[in-house]
Amino acid sequence: MQDDRGRVFREAWIAGVTKYHPGTPKDSYITPWDATPEWEKASATAVYDKVVAFIEAGGGTANLSREQKGRYVAACWIVQIYRTVADPKPSHVPEWNDMPEWWQQTDCDIFEAIEQHIAQ
Hints:
By secondary structure, the protein is mainly α. It has one domain. It is built from four helices and no strands. It has helices spanning 2-20, 38-56, 66-84, 101-119. Helix 2 (38-56) packs across helix 4 (101-119) and helix 3 crosses helix 4 (101-119). The radius of gyration is 14 Å and the shape is globular.
Protein backbone atom coordinates (compact mmCIF):
# COMPACT_ATOMS: atom_id res chain seq x y z
CA MET A 1 0.00 0.00 0.00
CA GLN A 2 1.40 3.40 -1.03
CA ASP A 3 0.44 5.03 2.23
CA ASP A 4 2.47 2.62 4.34
CA ARG A 5 5.61 2.83 2.22
CA GLY A 6 5.50 6.54 1.59
CA ARG A 7 4.49 7.22 5.16
CA VAL A 8 7.66 5.51 6.44
CA PHE A 9 9.69 7.84 4.23
CA ARG A 10 7.73 10.94 5.25
CA GLU A 11 7.81 10.18 8.96
CA ALA A 12 11.58 9.62 8.78
CA TRP A 13 11.89 12.94 6.91
CA ILE A 14 9.88 14.80 9.55
CA ALA A 15 11.84 13.15 12.39
CA GLY A 16 15.13 14.11 10.73
CA VAL A 17 14.07 17.67 10.04
CA THR A 18 12.88 18.00 13.63
CA LYS A 19 16.16 16.58 14.92
CA TYR A 20 18.72 18.28 12.65
CA HIS A 21 17.23 21.48 11.19
CA PRO A 22 18.65 24.57 12.87
CA GLY A 23 15.92 26.87 14.08
CA THR A 24 12.34 26.53 12.95
CA PRO A 25 11.83 24.55 9.73
CA LYS A 26 9.36 25.61 7.06
CA ASP A 27 5.86 24.26 7.66
CA SER A 28 6.07 22.31 4.39
CA TYR A 29 9.06 20.39 5.77
CA ILE A 30 7.01 19.00 8.64
CA THR A 31 3.58 18.66 7.06
CA PRO A 32 2.02 15.41 8.29
CA TRP A 33 1.44 12.60 5.79
CA ASP A 34 -2.30 13.13 5.52
CA ALA A 35 -1.77 16.77 4.49
CA THR A 36 1.16 16.06 2.15
CA PRO A 37 0.47 16.84 -1.54
CA GLU A 38 -0.24 13.80 -3.72
CA TRP A 39 2.84 14.30 -5.92
CA GLU A 40 5.01 14.30 -2.82
CA LYS A 41 3.33 11.16 -1.47
CA ALA A 42 3.95 9.42 -4.78
CA SER A 43 7.57 10.58 -4.77
CA ALA A 44 8.12 9.41 -1.20
CA THR A 45 6.69 6.02 -2.10
CA ALA A 46 8.87 5.77 -5.21
CA VAL A 47 12.03 6.53 -3.24
CA TYR A 48 11.04 4.04 -0.55
CA ASP A 49 10.57 1.41 -3.26
CA LYS A 50 13.98 2.22 -4.83
CA VAL A 51 15.72 1.83 -1.47
CA VAL A 52 13.93 -1.47 -0.81
CA ALA A 53 14.80 -2.76 -4.30
CA PHE A 54 18.45 -1.89 -3.70
CA ILE A 55 18.49 -3.60 -0.31
CA GLU A 56 16.70 -6.69 -1.60
CA ALA A 57 18.99 -6.95 -4.63
CA GLY A 58 21.76 -7.92 -2.24
CA GLY A 59 23.52 -4.63 -2.71
CA GLY A 60 25.57 -5.14 0.43
CA THR A 61 23.98 -2.23 2.20
CA ALA A 62 25.56 -3.35 5.47
CA ASN A 63 28.87 -2.31 3.92
CA LEU A 64 27.66 1.14 2.92
CA SER A 65 28.66 4.11 5.03
CA ARG A 66 25.93 6.25 6.52
CA GLU A 67 26.80 8.95 3.99
CA GLN A 68 26.54 6.56 1.05
CA LYS A 69 23.06 5.59 2.22
CA GLY A 70 22.06 9.23 2.42
CA ARG A 71 23.51 9.97 -1.00
CA TYR A 72 21.39 7.17 -2.46
CA VAL A 73 18.21 8.64 -0.96
CA ALA A 74 19.17 12.12 -2.19
CA ALA A 75 19.81 10.88 -5.74
CA CYS A 76 16.52 8.97 -5.83
CA TRP A 77 14.64 12.02 -4.53
CA ILE A 78 16.21 14.31 -7.14
CA VAL A 79 15.04 11.95 -9.89
CA GLN A 80 11.50 12.20 -8.51
CA ILE A 81 11.67 16.00 -8.48
CA TYR A 82 12.75 16.07 -12.13
CA ARG A 83 9.95 13.63 -13.00
CA THR A 84 7.39 15.82 -11.26
CA VAL A 85 8.50 19.44 -11.61
CA ALA A 86 9.16 20.84 -15.09
CA ASP A 87 11.80 23.37 -14.05
CA PRO A 88 12.75 22.83 -10.40
CA LYS A 89 14.60 25.48 -8.44
CA PRO A 90 18.29 24.62 -8.03
CA SER A 91 17.74 24.60 -4.25
CA HIS A 92 15.29 21.69 -4.69
CA VAL A 93 17.79 19.50 -6.58
CA PRO A 94 21.20 20.22 -5.03
CA GLU A 95 24.30 18.10 -5.35
CA TRP A 96 25.12 16.26 -2.12
CA ASN A 97 27.98 18.61 -1.19
CA ASP A 98 25.69 21.62 -1.68
CA MET A 99 22.96 20.25 0.59
CA PRO A 100 22.77 21.66 4.11
CA GLU A 101 24.04 19.21 6.72
CA TRP A 102 20.57 18.86 8.27
CA TRP A 103 19.25 17.62 4.91
CA GLN A 104 22.15 15.21 4.45
CA GLN A 105 21.65 13.74 7.92
CA THR A 106 17.91 13.45 7.34
CA ASP A 107 18.46 11.52 4.10
CA CYS A 108 20.84 9.17 5.94
CA ASP A 109 18.16 8.59 8.58
CA ILE A 110 15.56 7.89 5.89
CA PHE A 111 17.61 5.05 4.41
CA GLU A 112 18.14 3.57 7.86
CA ALA A 113 14.44 3.90 8.72
CA ILE A 114 13.55 2.00 5.55
CA GLU A 115 16.10 -0.70 6.41
CA GLN A 116 14.54 -1.06 9.84
CA HIS A 117 11.01 -1.09 8.42
CA ILE A 118 11.64 -3.95 6.03
CA ALA A 119 13.61 -5.90 8.65
CA GLN A 120 10.48 -6.06 10.83
